[in-house]
Amino acid sequence: MNGVTTETIIVLARDCDALRHVNNAVYIDYLHEATLHAHGVTREAAPDVALTALSAEYKAAAVYGDRLTITTWAAEARDGVVTRYYEIDRPSDGRRVLSARATWRVPGDPPPLVSDRPAPLKPFAPLDEAETTPFIWRHRIRRYQLDMRGVAGVTAYLNWLEEATFRAADAAGWPADRMWGVNLIILQYRRDCEFFADAGLGDVIEIESRYVYNGRLRGVWRHEVYRVGEAGERTLLARDYSTGAFLDRDLRPRVGAQEVAAALRAGPLDGKPTQEA
Q1: 84 vs 177: CA distance, rounded Å
Q2: pTM of the entire structure?
Q3: 89 and 147 both lie in a single domain
Q4: Position 277 pLDDT exceeds 90
Q5: 180 and 258 inside one domain
Q6: Any idea what the CATH number is for the domain that residue 87 is in?
Q7: Residue 100: which pLDDT band, with cuts at 50, 70 and 90?
Q8: d(Cα 168, Cα 172) in Å, to the nearest integer?
């Protein structure tokens, strides 16, 4: 065994969102399953596998019926914590769909390490973050958002971040239909996140979102997810840097999003940062 494993999956209809491609959060489920298979994790041990950090680049859209290959290998392993790389490809046209690096807590013996295979994505570079006004979305965790561990699952976190981003844009005066009207759409290009603590059923969370960087063709949100206690104390659960690509309606690179960026940095039009779910 050389430490590199590859498996094939078929994209199901339930994996796709309103844009008719695989939603960015669903890829985390693909990586999770590939990790369990690569480690040979038993049914009893599966709930103990937990994601602690993720970097992912979304390189091409996958759609219903696509056959995808997921290749993964372990690059580091120590004290029950394993860092793996992933490549998701579509053999039909040779496109790379996703490149990722993820760190997991995994029970059992460490896997064989692979040191001679190049990393499929660059490390996240620290940003020169702009001072911006926050948007805050408050939400109470529902039962259907729990995973096998009985806590909010990673896919739920990513769905919350997507919802928080759209709500923030709406509050700043730039809902999706207005962006569409000026021939602008923003699609997920990359995300870099860390998970620090868990939250469970009935917990109140706040997602504090700030638009911290605007480039020629991309913009970056910083999201911080907090658990809010009865006395108002906040515990940081996760931090995510979400990079979006500016495209036109034909999915070609689009420049000139400065007006949108200025509105996002200024905060909600009504001056009230907090929205209740």
Answers
A1: 39
A2: 0.94
A3: no
A4: no
A5: yes
A6: 3.10.129.10
A7: very high
A8: 6
Domain assignment present for residue 115? The answer is: no
80 and 168 belong to one structural domain: no
Count Cβ neighbours within 10 Å for each residue of 114-133 and write b for 16 or more, e otherwise: eeeeeebbeeeeeeeeeebe
Q: DSSP states of 190-250 as a string?
A: EEEEEE-----TT-EEEEEEEEEEE-SSEEEEEEEEEEE-TTS-EEEEEEEEEEEEEE-TT
Decide if 88 is inside a domain: yes
When pLDDT is cut at 50, 70 and 90, the band that residue 276 belongs to is confident
Residue type, 6: T
Residue 26 phi/psi, 5° resolution?
-65, -30
The predicted pLDDT at position 1 comes to: 52
Task: Give dist(CA 20, CA 14) in Å, integer.
Answer: 10
110 in a structural domain: no
pLDDT in tens, 224-275: 999 999 999 999 999 999 999 999 999 899 987 899 999 999 999 998 888 8
Whether residues 78 and 183 share a domain: the answer is no
Range of the domain at 251: 135-276
Distances (CA, A) of 226 to 121, 129, 148, 196: 29, 20, 21, 10
Of 134, 152, 180, the residue nearest 275 (C-alpha)? 134
Domains: count for the chain: 2
Q: How far apart are CA 208 and CA 166, in angstroms?
A: 13
Domain's final residue, options 67, 89, 105? 105
Exposed (0-12), middle (13-18) or buried (19+): which is 249, by Cβ within 10 Å? Answer: exposed
